[in-house]
Structure formats: C-alpha cells, structure tokens
Target: Cadherin domain-containing protein
Amino acid sequence: TKSSDCLHELSKSLQTGSTALLRGLVEGQRILSRAKRGWVWNQMFVLEEFSGPDPILVGRLHTDLDVGSTPIKYVLAGEGAGTIFAINEITGDIHAMKRLDREEKAEYTLTAQVTNRDTDQPLEPPSEFIIKVQDINDNPPQFVEGPYRASVPETSQVGTSVTRVTATDADDPVYGNSAKLVYSILEGQPYFSIDPNTAIIKIALHGMDREMREEYLVVIQAKDMGGHMGGLSGTTTVTVTLTDVNDNPPKFSKSLYEFVIPEDLAIGQPGGKVKANDRDIGENAKSTYNIIDGDERDVFEITTDAQTQEGILRLKKPLNFETKKSYTLKVEAANIRFDPNSGAPFKDTATVKIAVEDSDEPPVFSKPTFVLQVDENAPINTVVGTVTARDPDVTGSLVRYFIDRHTDLERQFNVNVDDGKITLAKPLDRETDMWHNITVTATEISNQISRATVAIRVLDINDNAPEFATEYEAFLCENGKPGQVIQTVSAVDKDDPIQGHYFEYRLIPEMLNNPNFTIKNNGDNSISVLAKHDTFRRQKQEMYFLPIIVTDNGNPPMSSTNTLTIRVCGCSREGIVQSCNVEAYVLPIGLSMGALIAILACIILLLVIVVLFVTLRRHKNKPLIIKDDEDVRENIIRYDDEGGGEEDTEAFDIATLQNPDGINGYLPRKDIKPDLQFMPRQSSGPNGVDVDEFINVRLHEADNDPTAPPYDSIQIYGYEGRGSIAGSLSSLETASSDSDQNYDYLREWGPRFRRLGELYSVGESDKET
Model:
C-alpha cells in the first residue's frame, strides 16, 4: 500500500553507519485502521490532537540489536515521558495516553535509548526525536471585548462607520482554514451592515432619526473555516445609540398666551411663563426668549429658566391700571445652537396678551422727599410746611397723615391728619440740631400706607452771645516793659450768620480808665491785652482781673462779659516765667515748695500711726482674774470663757459669738450706767479678807441687781448662743440665786457636764461650810 511505501522510505532514511541504529516503524495496518494517523519523518512524529479516551499509537522504535537473542529494553525520556507518552519496553511502541491539545503545547521533545533488560546498561547512545501535535478545528471564534457599545450621529450618511468588532480563534492560523474568520450580521438589518473581513459596522439606511428610535441592538457572528459549512462560530452584540443633532426647531405649545397681572406687582417679580418645546436634547434643546414687538414702553422683560427651559415674563417698570390696562407682546423662542447645514429657521413665535388688574394702591406722595425750613426759637404751632399725597385709585379715597414717632422720639413736630401741615410742638435750637429728619406716613381707608421723608432745616437766629474761645490765664512779668503784649484774646459764637462773624471788644465802663491795662484790636476778631507800666510787684498784688465785653454783629447784637485773669510772676532776663507765687519769697534758700509738702505729709503720716497704736493699746482686753488650774474656784474663771453653746464651732472667736439677732436690728446689751441707783458697794478691797467670801458677796450683789451686768460679760459675751437644748447656764439677767435653782439635771447630760453639775448641786450646808 501507499502507507507501506512511505514507511519503507522512512526506514531507509534512518539507517546510519553506526552499529546502533534507531528506526521508527509504524504498523501500517494499525494506522490505516484508526481515524488518527501518525507518521515518522526525519526524526519527527506528527500526531493530530485528539480528545478520545483510548490510547493512540504514535510510532515504534526499533534497533538492529533486536534480533531475539539479546534481552533489550526500550527507554523513553523527555517532555511528557511516562505521563503523556508511554513506550512498550519490549516492542518499542510509543502511545499517547492523554488528550493532546495543540493550543496548550504544540510539540514535545523526547529521548529514546536501548538498554540491556537484565543489567540496564545502555547498548546504544540516546537518540532525540520530536512529536509535533497537528492542529484540528476544535476552537470556535470568540469576541473577547464584547458586548460592544457604539454611537453615531442621527441622520448620518449611508456607509458612515459606526465601530469595529474583533474576534479571535485559538486554532493554528497557518495550518488550514481553522482560524480564518468571516463576519456577518444576524440581527440589525436593514439599518446596519458589516464588512465580512474587516468587521467594520456601517450605516446601511438613510435618514435614521433619533427622535423616532434612539437605540439599536445588532448581533454579529464570526465563523471560521472561511465561513464554509462545518466551521465553528461565535456571536456578540453591539448596542448602537444615535446621538442628537440639532435638527428640530423649538415649538410653542400654543400660539396665544393670556395673563392677568395685578398693577401692584413688584418690579422683578414673574408675571407669567411661556415654553417652547424642542424634540432635541441637551444643548440642542436649549432656547432663548425675546420680546420682539408690543413693548414700546419697555415695561416687560423675558428671561430663560435654565432648569425648565421656560420663558419667564417679569416687570421692569411698575404697572398702572389707570394709565394702561392691557399689553400685547410678541415673543420669540430661538435655539442657542444653530446648524447652518439644516437650512431650517430654528425659532418660533407666540403672542402674549397681558391684562392689568386694578389693585388697591397706597397713597402716592407728590415728592418722595420734602425739604422744609424753620427758624430756631420759632413759637410752638408755627407751620413748618405741608406734605401732600393722593390716592391713585379710581375711588380717590381720603388720605390721612401721621408722623412715624420712631423718627421723632422727642415729639418736636406735629402733622395735621387731614391736610398734612407740619407744625412745631417744641422750640428748636439750631446749635443743638441743625437738621431734623422725620418720616410722614399717608394712609387711606383700606389701610394702605406709604411713607415720605421730610428733612427740616433749622435756620439760625442771633440768640447766642460771643464768649472767649477758652479760659485765658495771662502771666505778667514784674520786669516787663510798658506796652508789652500780655495776652491775645479771641472769641467764638455758636451762631452761624450768613455774613460771617465780626466781634467788638471793649472794657467795661468802670475800667475805661484802667491804670494798669489796655486793649488793642488786631483786626482779625482778636485783641491784644497790653501793660501800661512796669511797676507790677507780686508783694503788692499777685493777681488782676480784667473784665472785657465781647459783642457780635447780629440783629439784634448779643454781648457777654468775660474776665481775663492776669497773674504777676517773676521772670528771667529773657522774659521766661519762673515763679508766680508770693510764698516763693518766704521759702528757705534751697528748699522748694514740693519738698516742703513732702516733709509735712511724712510728719502727718507718722502722727496718724502713733495715734492708732495708742488707741489699740487702750482698747486691748485684759483678764480680770487669773487663777491656778488646780484651784477649786476655777469655775469662776472658766465662766469668763464660756462657749457659745452648740453653735460655738471656733472657741474664742468673737465674730462667731456675736448675737446673730443683732443683724436683724436687735442690739446686744451695752454696759451703761443703770437709771436705778443701787446701794453702793463697800470700797474695801479683798486685802485681809477671805477670797471665797469676797466672791460670794459679789455674786450675791450681781444676782439681786437686774440692772447691773456682771463684770464677766464685759470681756467676751454679747450672746451666749441659741438653739441649745441645755438652755443658759449663766446667772446673767436673773434675780434668783443659786439656791433657788435645781441643777440636778446636769448630771443626766453625760460625763462632759458631770463636774459642772457637782459644782452647782451643792446643798445649803455645803455652801455654809
């Protein structure tokens, strides 16, 4: 057979001069009986990729040493040996044990060798050969980047490119037609077409309109084997969107719009809306509105709402029903973007009729601002001026006038509610306020209010006398020369005459023949005061007073008398004032007045300190009786230090022991001489007398004399405390003696009062003892 001839030629080509000969033999009958075939040529086995479960024979290895008497073994090594490829050690047959995929690996390099089966010693050098995997059409085309989206302007010409798709095939592009692809459209006709080789999608239908249909879904197929039967195919989708072009003009929804606008609509407020619809979208649908006719008075304007694309009609000037009751406007809407190639007028017009509605308007003043004048010091009820307002409505209601008192807090003006005459309510003073700005309101029956500003200027009259510009104090040197200028004097006037100020200065009549001073007019509303002689002495007269009359040029003229004080001072040869006091003559040499004052202040301070120290020493409290702590009569001494009861938290704190009732106006008892004269005490002291008897006598006298406080209260107590459940233990302010009181309850108060109870609970016999 033909296969046998090929195998024979292959055996001849593998023969070499070496004793080791590797031959690849293929059983022709087995190859012919299988669908898959393998050939060996120039040390290469060619095998089609397969996917069957059974092993397939790749080829056979044979050596001349295989004569039957030598135990030989064929060994296979290299890529895939033992896993993908297996060899029969005895016969040398090579089988593919797993599926071969050319797209994973296109060829394998292996090494064959003949060894001794018993000793595994190589009988020949290794021989390398290649097994090449032959491609078959087992991979369909794939659109890796799909699905696709593309866009193209509406109304594009036929043949306009939309987009390009790309499919890939994993099969061998150089062997056969397994990877040769052909493209076609399965869905999307007759709108689009595709080039079968380049896969470029193009417009196939004229006049595609986005407003009719905006989106198209195109299904593209790619088929291998050149598109012939039996080839594999893959599909993808392309979503084509038509983009908008400005091919539609704006169009008003109606040709006539009618609005009713009240005449009191504020300027800038909307009075109506119109809209022109455009089938285009985006920038192509934007329009601008204009009034092209009917607004000769320039009363209205129309603007575009950027969000809604509506034309908003607004007022530029106020409406007046009494003047014009209706308007007819012609409004135009035009696209902002215009395509000159379209050849269509991208605009539209509509008529707008506006009816002005009569409104109840507030009164209207004849002027927005009134300027009036009045003389200062004009009498009350003087008419300053008149404001006028009218009702612009057809009814012509009466107008009443009022002053906004927030602008006339001092109520200096009144207005007549019927005729608008403004009168004075209080006298005015120009020197206090030159201008008064008040607000007058005009009100009609319906309580509509309008306001006007009234500026009232207060005119000046000569009601203020001139006076010195400042309080002058002149200094005259003892060694001054006659005719010397002592002081330059000027005057001021609060009035403001139109012709300006002119002042006349003169001495009072009693001083016309003043022997010491005279005045000279400087011609600039000021005078100079001059000395007449040089015999001024401080010892003789230290200070002079010069009255000067200042008169203005008003009508009537006003005048005032001002006094200039002139002090006589000692000066240097250059005329510099050094001292103006007479005391300077009696001061010791080298001791100034300031130093003398400082010395006197120190002496006074020392005297005050000494007086305070002596006073504090005299008022210092001294204890009356000092006893030893072990003395049995210590109860008398401790009585002087009695605490303030349960409220006493700080012992010996006089501030805490003060009577809190004294804050409410109850003063503690003062140690004053009683009105009731009691029997005087004996003047004999305790010398030579038993101390215990002396104390008992004094205690008895104190208990029976309610007006004489015990001497022990003088030192400490103004208040013994309040709120204590024990009450008072003192014998103050009581006429009873210790024998009349029962102190047995003190023992029940605990160990702290036990010693006190024992002292006060002694019987009559004990006291006598």
